[in-house]
Amino acid sequence: MWSVHRWKPGNLPRVRRVCERRYQKKQGVDTKNLPFLVHRTPSGNLPVYVEPTQKGEKFTRIRRVFGDAQHLANEVSRLCESSARVGRGGRKAVEVLGVHEKRIKEWLQHLGL
């Protein structure tokens, strides 16, 4: 027999993803000279995501950007060889057309972010 278990609001299991080891934050790197910062998620991962568009294409979004987002967009554009832009809305995010998640995460980790 199957039993139905109802979750109460206070008893919901909390799931937190493990930090990706290959993109862990470098210790002892000075990031004060950078014109931008990309804050990591609470689980320690870099906030770089691949999302679909309505046309079926994919784009890579960098969230949690603080400081000069346009400078970050220019650097990402040069790195990925594709046009990047600062996303619209209240929060700063940089968007670049195509799947560039791995390349951007490696570059951000190299910078010490």
Describe this structure in words.
The structure is a single chain. This protein is of the alpha+beta class and 113 residues long. The chain has a domain at 35-111: SUI1-like domain (Translation Initiation Factor Eif1, 2-Layer Sandwich), CATH 3.30.780.10. It contains 2 helices and 6 strands. A hairpin with a 5-residue loop joins β2 and β3 (58-62). It is found in: Mitochondrion.
Topology:
Blueprint: E1 36-38, E2 48-52, E3 58-62, E4 65-67, H1 69-80, E5 84-86, E6 94-97, H2 101-111
Antiparallel strand pairs: 1-4, 2-3, 3-6, 5-6
Short description:
It is found in: Mitochondrion. The protein is 20% helix and 20% strand.
**What do we call the CATH homologous superfamily of one domain?**
SUI1-like domain
β content, as a range?
15-25%
Which quaternary structure do these chains form?
single chain
Mean model confidence by pLDDT: 82
Number of helices: 2
State the share of residues found in helices, binned by percent. 10-25%
Q: Major sheet: order of its strands? A: 2-3-6-5
CATH topology of one domain: Translation Initiation Factor Eif1
Q: What is the number of strand segments? A: 6
Question: Structural class of the secondary elements?
Answer: alpha+beta
The topology string of helices and strands comes to EEEEHEEH
CATH class of one domain: Alpha Beta
CATH architecture of one domain: 2-Layer Sandwich
How far apart, in Å, are the first and last alpha carbons? Answer: 51 Å
The major beta sheet can be summarized as:
4 strands, antiparallel
